[in-house]
């Protein structure tokens, strides 16, 4: 078996059994990256030397008897997590040369558990996008392709497209990602892997470049549900440096994967049956419900009456927060500065931000500035906050009747790199099934569940109660087992 | 009589409200662990949070919250157990995040009131609208380089309390008295050091004018006035400018102005049309600030005595209203006075502190926190007066010697033999000598020229080098002259 074909769990076992070393495992991944990254562009920065040094140190620790939960495991880190001494760009020209002197809490937690970082994964600029085409480092290619149209390059989804593509193509055993409106779950579904956005507050946001503070949440992508559970256990935990992080114990998520679903009530939100939804998506959803019933769960229709307002609500709240969060990129203290001799401060701002930000980021800053402006605040931002409260209440009421909710992860499979690029609203529709979990702060897991007629992966989404990731993992693992998803992308290491 | 300014069209009333920015006394900044000491090297007290680096998040400093609550309690104001931070968005080079974290919609402290005392002894209540917590910006230095501006972020993120008054003041004197009172209360509470020349306290002054019986006219805001005297001058200058505008048939427009201290006039800074749209919205990086009512009650129970209560206590001790006022202006003075007065005659202590001691501070350019005579030594001097060891004039001599040498009064009395003579026999002997040497004057006295009595007392005291007990000397002289 090629070392890149291990699951994360399998690699941990092999390392523990001594059948492979972290250096071997890391080298195998670095070889894969060297071969495939020029085409896939999943990594913005590959830290090969640091990775090998870390792998050596890990093997040495293991010899000394110190074995962390992720000892020697090579991972990709989304380039939105600040990594001390390693360039962190957020996929933006404005941070092209930014080397943070500090480590994000989540990546530090992984390092503390013995993980090895292969490099920084590509993403949509400032995590704004659903196709990973807005990155200043260029688009990421999905390692999957259509059976009858293999030459059309497909998007991996976004914004965590680099993380998802790297994991799907066996260029990492797992990766960190972030999800503001679906940025973990949509690319996971497009790339045929699993990914969970945990409850808001589960992972610290300290050291993660902010997009929309009240929605951003870190989580893992990996090739199995259990691998996600193992990674999340390491990433999560209370952090006094993030006032919105939850001071709650972190359960053994991997153990929860094997709980099964017997006796659970699974909700089916009737408002998610959209007009014109692809029949394959509808069929997969029905299949997923059938699998859960077969495993002993009961499926129940529930109503989320305000879900239909979720997308417009999201596209007010997220840009509003982003317009403020991105004000700090002003060319004064770090990152890019563009100025003309003799010009004034305003000119410095305008030149720096015009040159530093791409079109999608500029669009969202303008939308956000507009919805917060005097005279528009009440009609947009305040109204959106009220709708957000109603969406949260819808879920609370639904969870009086059910233990988890099952929906499709995305309205379609991965699309071509040239598709949907000229219509931002069509692009925004990718998030239709995922944004509600961000607005309500709930955990959502994408699980690969089948293929469409073109042989492209499709995913299902499990949404749980706040801080009940355990049930979400149990449902997800049950679906994964029933789906027995064994298809492989055409582009992958070791192939 | 209310204060008015006489214009060409008759008298004008003033309407004044103050927004006071007071730097909170705390070891660390409002949302970061960086230090807050004044006068440090530029950019030496800056965390990545204060510098607005990517991924940095604010964490509230509980001591700053406690200071705001103490201040609210000291201003007799409502403490809001639920408050919230908002972002105030604007671009400036010394505002690293591109927004200031402030409390716009839901301040930590609501309505309160303070009483001010005016020069004529009357008092007036000034309403407090609110107090909120916010972070300070950094400092732009435009005079360090020909074409560049330098930025010092030491102040960036330091906690400020913004105390907003009702438009209750009607004269420059009232504005000055209000600012003085707020400063006094904050210094008593230990929540702000009130050092206006270091920028730890500054005021935005809102001024409008009107004719008697009118509602409010348009106001202008004079920004960043940094002394009590300048506040009073700015009020008057701005009021006179507005009166001039109204009387020339023009209209006063709402705008932000600056006070030019050199020329004593206000200048336009920006008009309402150029005003920023701050795009306030709730700070998503911070949950609402929820206070425990028991915690607030504990802070209340631990509050120090405030100036009004202290003044009332001094008046009850028999001090004049003036002495009580003067002694409570600064907490340090009150503490000094109380050490001197402890177990002694309070009025005597007050006379000495406000008299000779204050005069010495003035003369030597010293401060009560660094006194030339300790409170303990001054108290000991009072003891020597009370037990008649020293007369009033001897005590003054001893006090001067204490200033010069720093020694305790008892030591000086011993060294210099300044002890008052209360031995009647000794005094009688001196009086006899004085009478013998001035037989002609004794005769004049006895023939009715009684005003010569003072002459004999003076000569006796002179012969005794001032050490005779004045009452005894009087008595002995009277008896001896009566023959």
Please tell me about this protein's structure.
Chain B: Its EC number is 6.3.5.-. Chain B: Belongs to the GatB/GatE family. GatB subfamily. With 495 residues, chain A is α/β, with parallel strands linked by helices. Chain A is 38% helix and 13% strand. In chain A, the strands form two sheets. Chain A has an eight-stranded mixed sheet, with helices on both faces. In chain A, helix 9 links the parallel strand 7 (265-269) and strand 8 (298-302). Chain A is globular, with a radius of gyration of 21 Å. The N and C termini of chain A lie close together (11 Å). The mean pLDDT of chain A is 96. Chain B has three domains: 5-298, no CATH class; 305-416, no CATH class; 424-482, Orthogonal Bundle (Arc Repressor Mutant, subunit A), CATH 1.10.10.410. Chain B has helices at 62-74, 172-189, 228-247, 293-301, 307-316, 321-328, 331-341, 346-364, 375-386, 392-405, 409-416, 424-437, 439-446, 453-463, 470-482, and strands at 5-7, 10-23, 82-83, 86-89, 99-102, 112-117, 123-135, 139-141, 150-152, 159-165, 201-210, 220-225, 255-260, 265-271, 281-282, 289-290. In chain B, the strands form four sheets. In chain B, strands 1, 2, 6, 7, 10, 11, 12, 13 and 14 form a nine-stranded mixed sheet that branches. Chain B has a three-stranded antiparallel sheet with strand order 5-4-15, with no helix packed on it. Chain B has a two-stranded antiparallel sheet with strand order 3-16.
